[in-house]
Amino acid sequence: MSTADQAIRFDTVSKSFGDGRVLDRVSFDVARGSACCIMGRSGTGKSVTLKLLLGLLKPDEGRIYVNDVEIETLNSAGLVEVRKTMGFLFQYSALFDSLSVAENVAFPLRRHTRMSEAEIADSVRERLAEVGLEGELDKMPLDLSGGMRKRVGLARALALKPSILLVDEPSSGLDPITTREIDKLLMDLKASSKTTMVVVTHNVPSARRIGDQLLVLHKGHILAQGTAEELDQSKDEIVQQFMTLATDEPANASPTRSASAIGRSHKKEVEYGVQG
Amino acid sequence: MANSQHASPGLTKTFLSEAGLISAFAMRAIRVAFQPPFELREVVHQIYMAGWRSLPLVMTSGVAIGVVLSMHTRATMERFGAEALIPAALAIAMISETGPLMTGLLVSGRVGAGIGAELGGMKVTEQIDALESLAVDSFHHLAVTRIIACMIALPILTTIMNFSGLIGGFLAETAISNVSLRLYFHQAFAGIGFVDYALPTLKTVVFGFIIGTVSSYLGYTTTGGSEGIGRASTRSVVFSSMLLIVINVLLVRIIFLLFPAGAL
Q1: What percent of chain B has pLDDT over 90?
Q2: pTM score, whole prediction
Q3: Which residues contact A152 (CB under 8 A, 6 or more apart)?
Q4: Could you give the number of structural domains in chain B?
Q5: Chain A contacts of B134, Cβ < 8 Å?
Q6: How far are the Cα atoms of A141, B22, B91, B156 from residue B247, in angstroms, in the given order?
Q7: Chain A closest CA to B127's CA: distance in Å?
Q8: A108 belongs to a structural domain
């Protein structure tokens, strides 16, 4: 496969913090328009991988390419341009708590586009409608449940219509039903806009749903890489443990809920002030 | 004994290391401040937060300080039969030292703690990383704007503190001697020129730089959750107040050396 087909390329990347080597000569590619799920135990460098991709951290060794641009060689202006092509959904959403929901989503549009306020307002409504939160424009982040915050974080990450979306633990702190809803949003997004995704998750059922390619990190190395079916066949004990972990799904959960069902569920979440 | 010998270089090293890091942070802030985008909207917002919202504290403190200073001044002046000099003595005390230093310390307490806690909170909740992920230079957007806002707000607040102090002094005086407002202010400003006002007031620009830089640095480097936020907030007030008091001595000395006539 030529590099033109790769949105992301990690080339023998290492990263240490103090004496601890978190990533040790890790290499992988993510094809344009596909979703790569990175799994692994806590502290194995999954979130570090995302921060390296975004240029928030610098690798000790190796090269990282985003859309064929080597990000370590960029100055701050170049990094800004690359970051405009990427969205990041943080583990705990990282919403700006002094701004309302609408202001959070409008923030990147105000910073990086010449859109009028009316156009920004339309775009914000559109993004929030995509994540089922069209009625929550004026709420403050602290008034939202965990699932709602995640949706607002996703709407903000998608505001500039990035070609690459980085997602850190989308199911963290969420109930299984809300987890499924977030997964569905990500799957719909990949199908509709061909967005390349790198999703860090502990949640194997989520990874199976979202990922075209699954990658297991262990002690700084890639232990296994491939489709869910390929990893199911792995003889490695740790990979097997990962792939056969108990699912997060309740027995009667419907595998494919409609968008309206998601909306209804969300409205209940709002009405009852459920904190995820 | 052995322990103390080991602890001392450790503390010194930590202090010097921290001082070096804050200096590097300050240098970076100066360099970045002249690079676009200039974040004017955020600077104005921060001036509102640091300046406008400090007004009640500064004005109330100013009036109270003016009343107290006036009472002390009267007690001294009466002994020499120099009551007519009370307004001038109070004006000199307020404008040359009490106003600038008190404003610096009050703002360091209110705004410094606020900046330390706010940026610390943003750091531990990944909001600073979120800014970077949205292709925004978080250092410029958060730290530089607050430093500039403090530098602009301090001289304005100092002027307001000075006038509040004089009004407090007038209230105390008029209750005793029934002096008119016009006569009081005429006597207060009789011996004060523009340079006498400008030099001590402009030194608060440096106070603003210290408060903004120290508290932004401590907020920006916060670690350790809510305990870390509390620590950043407290250290912002302690370090910026201490530094401000020490730097004030140097600034006063420089003013005396460079402008002997303007040093009141």
Answers
A1: 81
A2: 0.85
A3: A93, A95, A101, A104, A105, A128, A131, A133, A136, A141, A144
A4: 1
A5: 83, 107-108, 111, 156
A6: 41, 15, 23, 20
A7: 5
A8: no
- Mean pLDDT for chain A? 85
A237 occurs within a structural domain: yes
Per-residue pLDDT tens for A161-192?
999 999 999 888 788 888 888 899 899 988 88
Residue of B nearest to A164 (CA): B133
Q: State both tokens at B135.
A: 């292709």
Chain B residue at shortest CA distance from A95 = B127
A13 CA to chain B: closest CA distance, Å? Answer: 21
- For residue B12, being part of any structural domain is answered with no
Report the relative pairing of strands A69-70 and A61-66 from DSSP bridges.
antiparallel
Cis peptide before B100 (omega within 30 of 0): no
Domain that holds residue B237: 38-262
CATH number where A56 lies: 3.40.50.300
Assigned domain for B258 exists? yes
Q: Considering the domain boundaries, does residue B195 fall inside one?
A: yes
Tell me, yes or no, whether B29 lies in a domain: no
User: Is this prediction's ipTM beyond 0.85?
Assistant: no
Interface of A with B in 82-101 (CB under 8 A): 83-84, 86-88, 90-92, 94-97
Please check whether residue A107 touches B, CB under 8 A: yes
Q: Is A132 a member of any domain?
A: no
